[in-house]
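Is this the right way to post structure tokens for a design question? Let me know if I should format differently. Anyway, here goes:
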């Protein structure tokens, strides 16, 4: 009862106020009247970096561009290594051979060119610290020639094995990067980017900190990448060393055995 009176009072007070100021306040808004336009922005109209990144990228790359399953995008070294064109390309077209999806409308994604630009600009303003690689003689983002597999094996043994071990089933403290299922989910660029920019969030040093006393060379990175890619199994995920010949599907183990 009381509430209703108050409402009616405030309603009529407002009416009086509006009426008396009518000549001045053209278009005085009634309480509760929705603003012009749709109440929820259309998906293609969202232009805010946090909203776009949170809805589309954070699940794989981490809430703040770190501690995700995939690349540490907020790493300033990564931001210095990669150019805008490549960022736009990866977001729009995805990354072949990895789980990075294509977000461009042309590929069935949901992001317009303007939204992809907003993501690139947002990443730069949030995470770039300028050209932190200037004067460091950093390897190029993309490999400039084919790698030498044999030389790459030697690089793996002397540099990577100390943290990643030599056997696919023994990961060492940093986990196995020889595991077939892991190799099946990454491509050359994943390895190259990881080795050059590191994964500071997960404790992997960049190319300057992997060998004591010197930096890793561009050729060493190209070669070790070639060797790792050559370890990709033909049938990733197969629990058997060779393809199963029988036509019957493997049976799950029975309870209690
Ligand atoms: C389903 C998981 C997934 C989602 C969602 C995802 N990514 Fe990725 N992204 C990956 C994977 C996997 C890679 C390739 C492997 C790597 O580089 O770690 C990758 C690679 C990238 C790279 C290239 C890294 C390099 O090597 O230079 C960029 C840039 C990138 N993603 C940005 C984004 C942005 C921006 C979004 C949101 C619009 C996004 N990703 C959403 C999984 C994902
Ligand atoms: C000083 C130790 C160390 C050395 C040496 C090292 N890594 Fe790593 N690496 C790490 C750590 C730590 C991680 C993160 C592991 C995790 O938590 O997933 C990692 C992760 C990776 C990943 C996976 C990145 C991802 O996004 O999941 C790749 C690929 C990789 N390292 C490649 C290499 C290669 C190639 C070499 C040799 C050139 C190398 N690493 C040498 C410590 C090292």
């Amino acid at each position: 009862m009381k509430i209703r009176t108050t409402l009616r009072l405030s309603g009529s007070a407002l009416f009086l106020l509006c009426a008396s100021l009518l000549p001045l306040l053209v278009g005085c808004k009634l309480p509760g009247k929705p603003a012009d336009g749709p109440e929820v922005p259309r998906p293609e109209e969202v232009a805010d970096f946090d909203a776009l990144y949170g809805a589309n990228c954070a699940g794989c790359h981490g809430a703040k561009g770190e501690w995700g399953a995939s690349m540490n995008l907020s790493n300033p070294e990564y931001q210095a290594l990669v150019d805008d064109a490549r960022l736009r390309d990866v977001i729009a077209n995805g990354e072949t051979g990895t789980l990075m999806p294509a977000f461009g409308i042309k590929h069935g994604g949901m992001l317009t060119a303007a939204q992809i630009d907003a993501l690139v600009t947002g990443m730069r303003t949030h995470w770039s610290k300028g050209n932190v690689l200037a004067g460091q003689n950093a390897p190029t983002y993309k490999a400039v020639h084919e790698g030498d597999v044999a030389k790459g094996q030697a690089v793996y043994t002397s540099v990577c094995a100390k943290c990643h071990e030599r056997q696919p089933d023994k990961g060492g403290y940093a986990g196995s990067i020889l595991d077939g299922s892991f190799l099946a989910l990454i491509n050359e660029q994943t390895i190259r980017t990881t080795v050059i920019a590191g994964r500071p969030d997960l404790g992997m040093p960049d190319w300057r900190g992997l060998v004591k006393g010197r930096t890793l060379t561009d050729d060493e990175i190209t070669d070790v990448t070639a060797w790792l890619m050559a370890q990709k199994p033909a049938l990733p995920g197969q629990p058997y060393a060779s393809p199963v010949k029988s036509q019957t599907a493997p049976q799950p183990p029975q309870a209690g055995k």
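Format looks fine. Someone answered above. Worth noting: The pocket of heme C (ligand 1) is lined by residues 56-57, 59-61, 70-71, 73, 82, 87, 90-91, 95, 98-101, 103, 119, 186, 189-190, 193 (CB under 6 Å). The chain is about 40% helix and 0% strand.
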